[in-house]
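quick one: nicotinamide-adenine-dinucleotide bound model?
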Amino acid sequence: MRQKPSPPAAAAGRLGVVVVGAGSLSTSFIAGVLAVRRGLGKAIGALTQLGLLAGPPECPSPVPVGQAVPLSSLNDLAFGVWDILPDSVYRAAVKARVLDRELLDELRDELDAIRPWKGIFDPRYVHRIQATHCRPRQGHRANVAEIDRDLGFFRESAGIERMVLLNAASTEAYQGIEEIHSDLKLFERALGADDERISPAMLYSYAALRQRIPVVNLTPSHAVDIPALLQLSEEMKVPVAGRDLKTGQTLLKTILAPGLKARVLGIAGWYSTNILGNRDGEVLDDPQCLKSKEESKLAALKGILEPDLFPELYGDLVHRVRIDYYPPRGDNKESWDNIDIVGWLGYPMQIKIDFLCRDSILAAPLALDLTLLADLAARSGLRGAQDWLSLYFKNPTVKNGRQVHDLLAQRQMWEDELHRIAGWKPNGARGA
Ligand SMILES: NC(=O)c1ccc[n+]([C@@H]2O[C@H](COP(=O)([O-])OP(=O)(O)OC[C@H]3O[C@@H](n4cnc5c(N)ncnc54)[C@H](O)[C@@H]3O)[C@@H](O)[C@H]2O)c1
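yep, here:
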């Protein structure tokens, strides 16, 4: 049964945002928040800052999200990061080449002050980065204790009231879900035995959950979404969300496919290819890491098109996704889609999309929304996978295994849950 939110506690005090990985995505997010705070830019793409919700039944005019539910103020966010490279957030942002140097220089003091804690590194999961700033290789339990210490230190030194952990580290080599991931007891036993099927992303998530810190997985790696950790999130009464931010090509796919289906147009094939030249692309150049990304990119279409219900339209759909590392483009990636659609009497047609996007510019506002909404969910007593946050992900982690990919359906779930948290009737229940 769906969990009922309780009236959210006030968003008082500092909210610590602890981020695993200080790369293109997280530095664009952190620098962006600081820039918005100082009036140097607008939070475009962040629903918590610019979105509207339908008002309560007695006054249905749209209201800003932050008026409907109590969100933490951007001024109350404090940032901590882990990385396996020693660069401060300023240095890492300069190297990422997403934001203009001029803007970064205006924010330099604040960004330079955010120095990464040493990361938990396992070369079996990321092969393409030479880690120079990591904890010595030691057992899983010792690693968890190190993460606990960093969290405790941050809480004390920055005067933190509540925290949210975001996983924004490099995509890890594909690790399927096996028996040890399926149950908390088995997972903890495997933890004690230093089982190599437990990845760093799982360790960070485990440590945070035990401290009742909400965890959001922005990457395709299996982390907080494994059944053992979902079980822990339910037991510890902590909300979690993931996996892999829906930013460029998949965002367009989940806007377009529901539209074609709404008009019962057939789709014979959907071929998607991408080039990207940032470090994420370099890591994905490793076939094992690419497998994690491909799995999450392929998830959407089947869920939307329901070939079982529409075998004549989508039963034979061929879906291919390619990603190529192409350094000259940096973070400004380009994606092409060729969609072979089928109309009246089976006549074929084609749609071509060429999307020149900026990956981290699309991702940063989602990281902000997820930080504020995961904290809101925690203050509203919600726990476990938060299906209503599916809007943000390529491969949403959900409670009953039934994913929704259609962007407008996801947006409705998002709005309905915010109405419930606000104590209003959801839209669909109006007048009932
Ligand atoms: N950039 C985007 O817009 C975007 C969009 C959707 C999803 N993602 C996903 O988010 C993740 C980060 O993307 P990015 O573009 O910032 O990549 P990036 O390569 O720029 O940054 C990743 C950072 O993680 C660090 N890291 C690697 N292993 C670590 C560990 N064990 N502990 C601590 N730090 C570690 C790396 O040193 C690096 O600084 C990737 O999985 C990517 O697929 C990114």
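The chain has two domains: 14-245+360-429, 249-356.
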